[in-house]
Queue: 2 jobs
Job 1
Amino acid sequence: MQYVGLLGTSEKIIKIEIEHMKLGLENKHFDTAFQRLSSLEGKTVAITGTTTGTGFSAAEACGKLGANVLLLNRPSNRADIAFALLEATNSNGKFFKIDCDLQCFQSVRSATTEIMARCPAGLDILCNNAGVMALKDIPTADGFDVQMQTNHLSHFLLTKLVFRLLQEAAQKRGEARIVNHSSMARLMVKKLDPKYLEKRGGNLGGDGSRLFIFQGGRWERYGQTKLANAAFTACLHVKLRDKNPKIKAMVAHPGVAETDLQGTAIADGGAGPSGGIGRWLIRQMMKMGQSQQDGAMGIIRCIADPEINSGQFVGPGMGMTALRGPALSYPLERFYNNPYTRDLLWEKSCEAIGEDFVI
Ligand SMILES: NC(=O)c1ccc[n+]([C@@H]2O[C@H](COP(=O)([O-])OP(=O)(O)OC[C@H]3O[C@@H](n4cnc5c(N)ncnc54)[C@H](OP(=O)(O)O)[C@@H]3O)[C@@H](O)[C@H]2O)c1
């Protein structure tokens, strides 16, 4: 909140609104879980979406553990400020800013060139964290749904493009990790629908915002992206297990964590965010949730906990009531970890990025 004055006008209005709704929940599990993590000295970690939220907390934790941390963000004041904050408060790690707008495949490609330059000895961990939620039914310039391209397709492309670096790190230092960030919203859709991975942005269910029982288009699309994150992990796990067992794939979810994500869930009626949830209800949900750092512990454990293995799902439980709690590990679920869904996800994602991803 201390840096709000440095933001642009529209950013400032949204930030103040979100900060106003936050309850300031305290950490309950973070410190204990942090003690179990391994040092990341000599390792390089790339994380998407570190301006705020779980990505910021993960970057902070990786820095404390001694890593070189590549911060992959779309260019903004928020990205500059987060970089400055991380540098100023963390003396163990080294931070590097890399422009990467996940709404644009070309931007992901350009980011990869910079990542390669920063990783002469390989990339140890890629954390595909960034996400948007309940946005309007609009296409990206590449023609895909804005939520699907940001949350999954660009991460699929990024993973493909840096895969060689992950192989190099695994060969030199014994292992590399790919960490994805899903959500309880995966449980709201259950079945991956291929149309959401196609070039049909702007024509995928409209702007309906009903969250419970009757799902609106905004939430259906979000749920599909979070199911895709889990299914992508299942695909990677199965392919890597046979061909590249030193590269591990895992996925986490934060329960409900007090981040900036709820900003787009607010029902505003006007031109602003309109995920259809009233401020009162958002506050009630947050009361049942947890702090940003506790929420981030799922991805942080996937990044740095030696006890987490490929094919595990880390979070505060696996059902719809897993809103808070210590980040524990569970097996991947059958509703996406099955040959049909894995093949579908892989085939449609390759089609979307316009190239094969062979492991
Ligand atoms: N918080 C929760 O309760 C919750 C629950 C379930 C799952 N998750 C998942 O957790 C992950 C992190 O979310 P969060 O809760 O930490 O939300 P957040 O505070 O809103 O952070 C989201 C991050 O994603 C970045 N991002 C958005 N669009 C991007 C783009 N086009 N290119 C690059 N970066 C982009 C944002 O950067 P900008 O500043 O540029 O927008 C921000 O750094 C998401 O995948 C989300 O689905 C969160």
Job 2
Amino acid sequence: MSVTKRSCLRCGTCCRKGGPGLHGEDAGLIEQGVFSSKDIVCFRKGELAYNQAKGRLEPLSCELLKLQGKKGTWECLFYDPGSKGCRIYAGRPLECRTLMCWDTRPLEKIMTDDDRLQRRDLVPQNSGLAALMADHEAHCALERVARLVGTNQDVMEERDRRAKIIDICLYDLHFREAFREKTGVADAALYCYFGRPLFRAVRGYDPWFESEDFLRYFVK
Ligand code: SF4
């Protein structure tokens, strides 16, 4: 006899698959101190993400803030495997409150780009940090790398194209290092302010980004 699921069985599957994307109303949870910038990762515009509806990887049309995963995994950092529970249950974000794995229609309704929480919602627009974030984006936009990946060999030699991409990814790392040294901001918060390191974020654009030939510039 098959049983139709109508309530959460606390199996933990959704929390182990990844933390929720954040929406406008989740900003209130940050103000209340439920979580902070060091718990958030930004997937920047242009980063490849899996589109559930289309079943394929696509560049993000706008940035996406999510709760971070635990080291080396996608499992939400607030998931407690021992109790199979959420450590911030009373203050869990909108997507977690909306998700019913037996009926995803309510979740699909709120998954619009218009309601996404953005970095500009977290950082005062006239602040030094906002200026640095804009500067970083101007130099290290995913779209810059994507354009170079798609550049025809008739326009630019393969060797020059790859050298330019490595330059941009190294700039990103040096930028983060300088920011960390000057401000003392926790490493984890850099993922919120500047996204994932560019050399990681470009994975998926070209098999070369997973090769030893590319990674040796960034992983010591
Ligand atoms: S915030 Fe809580 S409910 Fe949401 S994915 Fe993380 S552990 Fe699960």
